[in-house]
Design a protein that fits this description.
Layout lengths: L1 H8 L3 H8 L25 H11 L14 H12 L8 H19 L17 H5 L7 H6 L60 H18 L2 H9 L9 H11 L3 H14 L6 H13 L1 H7 L3 H15 L17 H18 L17 H18 L2 H10 L7 H13 L3 H16 L5 H21 L3 H14 L5 H5 L24
Helix pairs in contact: 3-5, 8-9, 8-10, 9-11, 10-11, 10-12, 11-14, 14-15, 16-17, 16-18, 18-19, 18-20, 18-21
């Protein structure tokens, strides 16, 4: 017996395990192996003993894991029973080693994480794959498994759906104001009384002009002074408040009369809310100083600035003694001309002339009767002078593109009331020029002709031949490309009515011609 144990202890474990069991087989408990080859033999767990006991009860002949089968496997076994590397070993030790290797594989397949689920896997591990079911112990099975890994719970979402990446709480949850913890080491008594405000940096000269220019240009389109005041309050103007009137007046000098009127209203509304009277005085001082440069772009700048000063004094945003403070101290010719213009306008206002009419009433602010008179005067002056460019310029100065249909209507009425061919030809040339320059749009031209078509019965009462003249004028306008074919076809025509019909026996019809 001692000789047999000595032979077992002398077996090379690496060769023995590689040939008979598997490359990664752990140490065998009954063999005392060399520490240089394998290592220290560890004790087995209770699961190891249980599995080992079950496998011992099985047939030892069916525990082979070699790659050989049939006679080759049996032949190899007989040789191992007799001699391994010149050392003799008993068959019982080989069977016990096979049992240990089999138990080790069983432990690997049944991990401790899934041991309590009651899931079983076949010994060779291929039965589940053939059935198309992923083993619960495989990495893929663990990823697809949504159950709790601890085997507890009812399968509900973690934290009631409030957990996970990018989740701030359950749906509909309202967070209360977090109270300051007085026991916090970083607690400060003054932090409860802190007031946080957004600080807007003051605008410099370059940013000031770049920011305010589009605001004023948009104001010329909508004309709402309250919107401009709100936008200026959001800006930190600082010391640049006096630059607002300077920039607004400079832009208005290059615009139309209506823009200057709107600028005067803007300055009056901003004074007292966004800027003070001192800021207005500083701005006009700077305008008088910069008049030589402004006159290069706008030759009428001295007279226009004088009108702005007179309007500001009339609105109460400049004191009455502002002009008197410059007497005898002005060397610039343009500044002296501006102050003289303002003095003349203020003296005229004392005689009953309103100071708010220094720019006139332009655009939609004019009454309909006033616009009708202006257009009638424009056409009469054109028939006397024959200057189409001047008539076009005067029409644009009225700034009423929505009222151009009145000019078309009045011009055709003059053609119907005229007795010569000169008026017919001059009006045709005027309408053709205004149409080609897009001064009168298609819609306004169409509305003017439709008004004539609707009122031709009344016009015919005063002008008996108006139908025939209108038909000829409309046809010439169509040939010149002023109106479309559809508009030409809408022209009314008076049919010929006969007093006596053929076969009536000379009786007159009861209808009157």
């Amino acid at each position: 017996m001692d000789v047999e144990n000595e032979q077992i202890l002398n077996v090379n474990p690496t060769v023995f395990l590689c040939k008979q069991i598997m490359p990664s087989l752990p140490m065998i408990s009954n063999l005392s192996l060399d520490h240089s080859n394998v290592g220290v033999v560890s004790s087995y767990s209770s699961d190891w003993d249980r599995i080992k006991k079950d496998l011992t009860l099985q047939d030892p002949d069916n525990l082979s894991d070699s790659l050989f089968s049939g006679d080759e496997e049996n032949a190899g076994t007989e040789e191992i029973k007799n001699e391994i590397n010149g050392n003799w070993i008993s068959a019982s030790s080989i069977n016990e080693a096979r049992i240990n290797a089999r138990a080790k594989r069983r432990l690997r397949k049944n991990s401790s994480r899934d041991s309590g689920r009651g899931d079983s896997v076949s010994d060779n591990g291929s039965e589940g794959l053939r059935c198309g079911v992923t083993a619960p112990t495989s990495p893929k099975g663990r990823l697809l498994d949504r159950r709790s890994r601890s085997g507890k719970g009812r399968g509900l979402p973690k934290k009631g759906g409030a957990g996970g990446k990018g989740v701030w709480g359950t749906p509909g949850q309202v967070y209360d104001v977090e109270e300051v913890d007085v026991r916090d080491p970083n607690y400060d008594d003054d932090q409860e009384n802190c007031v946080y405000e957004t600080v807007v940096l003051p605008l410099d000269e370059m940013a000031f002009e770049k920011t305010l220019t589009p605001i004023i240009q948009e104001y010329f389109e909508h004309g709402d002074t309250n919107e401009v005041a709100e936008m200026l309050r959001d800006l930190n103007l600082g010391e640049m408040k006096s630059g607002v009137p300077v920039l607004a007046v400079s832009l208005a000098l290059e615009g139309k009369a209506s823009h200057r009127e709107m600028t005067s209203k803007l300055l009056s509304d901003l004074c007292g809310t966004v800027m003070s009277t001192n800021d207005v005085e500083k701005s006009f001082d700077k305008l008088l100083k910069d008049l030589p440069e402004l006159a290069l772009d706008t030759p009428r700048a001295p007279q226009l600035v004088g009108q702005f000063i007179a309007r500001a004094v009339g609105d109460g945003i400049l004191c009455n003694t502002y002009i008197d403070s410059y007497k005898g101290t002005v060397d610039c010719v343009q500044a002296r001309a501006a102050l003289d213009k303002a003095t003349v306008l203020l003296s005229m206002s004392k005689g009953g002339k309103r100071k708010d009419s220094v720019w006139g009433s332009g655009g939609g602010q004019q009454s309909v009767n006033h616009l009708v008179k202006e257009i009638d005067m424009l056409l009469k002056e054109y028939l006397l002078s024959g200057d189409i460019s001047e008539a076009e310029h005067c029409l644009k100065e009225l700034e009423v593109p929505h009222f151009h249909h009145e000019l078309v209507y009045e011009a055709i009425v003059m053609v119907l009331e005229s007795t010569g061919e000169s008026t017919f030809k001059m009006i045709l040339d005027l309408l053709k020029s205004l149409w080609k320059s897009s001064t009168i749009t298609l819609d306004q031209m169409k509305r003017g002709y439709e008004r004539i078509y609707n009122e031709i019965p009344d016009i015919n009462l005063d002008v008996p031949h108006s139908y025939s003249v209108l038909e000829r004028f409309v046809e010439d306008c169509f040939q010149a490309g002023i109106i479309s074919k559809q508009l030409r076809d809408l022209c009314p025509s008076r049919g010929r009515k006969r007093f006596v019909s053929e076969g009536d026996g000379g009786r007159l019809k009861p209808e009157s011609y």
